[in-house]
Structures are given as structure tokens and as C-alpha cells.
Amino acid sequence: MRNLSPKLFLVPLLLLGLGSAGCSWMPWVGKDKDRAEEDLNATEQQLYRDTQRALRAGNYDRAIQGLQQLEARFPFGRYAEQAQLEIIYAQYMSYDHDTARASADRFIRLHPQHANIDYAYYIKALAAFNKNRGLLDRIFATDLSKRDMTAARDAYADFAQLLALYPESQYAPDANLRMVYLRNLLAEAEIHVADYYMRRGAYLAASNRARHVIETYSKSQSVADALGILVEANWRLGLEEAANDALRVLALNYPNYPAFDEDGNLVLASTVRNRDRSWTNMVTFGLLDRPEVPPPITIKHPEGFEPPPVNPDAAPPPKKKKGGIFSWLPFVG
Q1: Contacts by residues 229-233 (CB-CB < 8 Å, ≥ 24 positions apart)
Q2: For residue 108, what is the domain's CATH number?
Q3: In tens digits, what is the pLDDT along the chain, a chain of 333 residues?
Q4: How many independent structural domains does the chain possess?
């Protein structure tokens, strides 16, 4: 057998030494446990600082990516819960409203006793509030009450839940104001649906919609219009007593309603002509196919009843449409 060179025995020893030196940069090789934990904590803090810079710069996609990485790498770290809250905010600011609502629900489920849980409820409601809104809505002043009201109903319910659970929250005043706006918006949407039913001759369905506005959104600006629809729908259905009851409520609560004439009769001619016009009527400039207009409806008070004097300041101010840059155009709005 041929003798091996002594140099060959040095090769394994050299490789072993290089391997040990090559792994020395790893925190768990050649260092104690305390030093490794310090490095990990420093990494967590640095990652959090990077996400904060991205948030301040408005780079929400990068912030979301960093916050998700922070939560995944350090699920029990000092910034884990804060990262979950800031993910909700970043998703909301990047107009990913559905994902923001899902993240808010997740945070509420995981941390029901968190000190800032009211913030999660608030952003969840805001995400629904702004879901169907965009820049064009501000420019052209579109009528949001003619859109799908699903997101508005979700926002109204979410704000109501926030106020019920945390009435002393710092977000409660803003939630109250937004609920007033949403209440008027939802009521106005119901009025549009009732008007549609009136045009189609579905008077019972229109009456139910108007009654829903009166019962559910009793403090909204559309209650007077709902009462007017209820009066007309009951009159067309031949329910004179019900129509008179609704008319009395309208006269007592809204004596300055525009459809009342000087004698206190409800005149619906203008409303019906504008609402029920057919294409034939519009093409012929109102000469043909005129809509059926009810006569002035007179209130029948009980014997001995004396109506209160009309207070000119009792009626609410007329509803103003939100104006936009191009709201002066006749086809906008």
C-alpha cells in the first residue's frame, strides 16, 4: 500500500476551520443567548421604525408589507398589537376598505380588552362610510342617495355600535355627526324608492316605504316628504281616513310644507307632474298623456278641534344639495 502524503491530512482540518469561521456571523453560533435576544430586539425595533417612515411618507403599500412582516416575525413582540392597528389604518388610507374592515374585525376578535379598541371600531365604520366615494363625487356633486345603500347601512350600524360600547370615546362626537348625515342619506334613499313605486302605480309598496322612513328615521329631513307620499298613496288606494290622519300629522308638524296652499289644502299637482311624466308627455311638451293629478286634499279635523297657529320658524330649512365644481351645469346633480 502506497504511503499517503501528510499534506492530505491537513485538508479536512482546513475545511473544518473554514466552516467554523464561516458560521461565526450567525447569532446562535459562538455567542451567548443574551446577545442573540438583543440582536432580535434591535431587528424588531428597526423594522418598526422603517414602517413608521413609510406611513409618514404616505407609502401605505410599503407600510402594510412591513407591518405584516413585523407581525409575522414577532407575533408576541412589543409592537405586535400596535402593528395590527396600524395595518387597519394603512389599508383604509390606501382605499382598500373591505380589507380594512376585515382587519378591524380580526383585531376586535383577538384583543377585545385593548385600550385602543375603539379606534378599530371607528376605522371599521369609516371604511364603510367612504367605500363608495371618490374624487368624481366631489367634483360633480353626485346624489349619493340614488346609489346602493349597503355600505351606508353598514357604516350606520358600525357607528351605532361604537357609540353603544364606548360612549365616552374620543371618536364619539365625530361618529354622532356622521350618523346624522347617514340617517338623512338613508331616509332620502327610501324616498327615492317610494317615488319609484308611485310612478309605477305600486301605491301600497310606496306607502310601506314612507311609513318605514317615518318610523325608522323619525329625526331625518325626509319625514315631511314621507308623510306627503303617505297621504297621496292612501288617497289613491281609497283609504280616505288613513290619508286624512297622515295629512293631519303633516300639517301639525310641518305647517310650512311647500305643497300646502294658503287655505291649508295639500296640492300635489306640481309634484305629480314632475314625477309621473311619460316620454310622450315630455316630447309633446306636456300636451299629451298628462299624468293624473289629484285634487287639493282638505284636512278633516275632529269636531271642536282648533289647529295651532302657524309659526313661520317651525319648519326646517330647505334641504341643500352639496355643490361641486361643475354643479352649475344643468345635467349635473
Answers
A1: 229/191, 229/194, 229/195, 229/198, 231/266, 231/297, 232/198, 232/268, 232/271, 232/272, 232/294, 233/198, 233/203, 233/204, 233/206, 233/207
A2: 1.25.40.10
A3: 455 455 555 555 555 555 554 454 444 444 445 544 543 454 888 888 888 999 999 899 999 998 988 888 888 888 889 999 999 999 999 999 999 999 999 999 999 999 999 999 999 999 999 987 765 656 666 778 888 899 999 999 999 999 999 999 999 999 999 999 999 999 999 999 999 999 888 999 999 999 999 999 999 999 999 999 999 999 989 998 999 999 999 988 998 888 888 777 787 766 766 666 666 766 776 666 666 667 777 777 666 556 656 555 554 444 544 444 444 444 344
A4: 1
Cell of 329: 351645469
Q: In this structure, is residue 127 part of a structural domain?
A: yes
What's the pTM value of the predicted model, to 2 decimals?
A: 0.73
CA atoms within 13 A on the CB side of 245: 6
Compute the distance between CA of residue 86 and CA of residue 120 in angstroms, rounded to an integer: 10
Domain range enclosing 156: 40-170
Do the beta carbons of residue 95 and residue 127 sit within 8 Å? Answer: no
What does the alpha-carbon distance between residue 267 and residue 294 come to, in Å, rounded to a whole number? 8
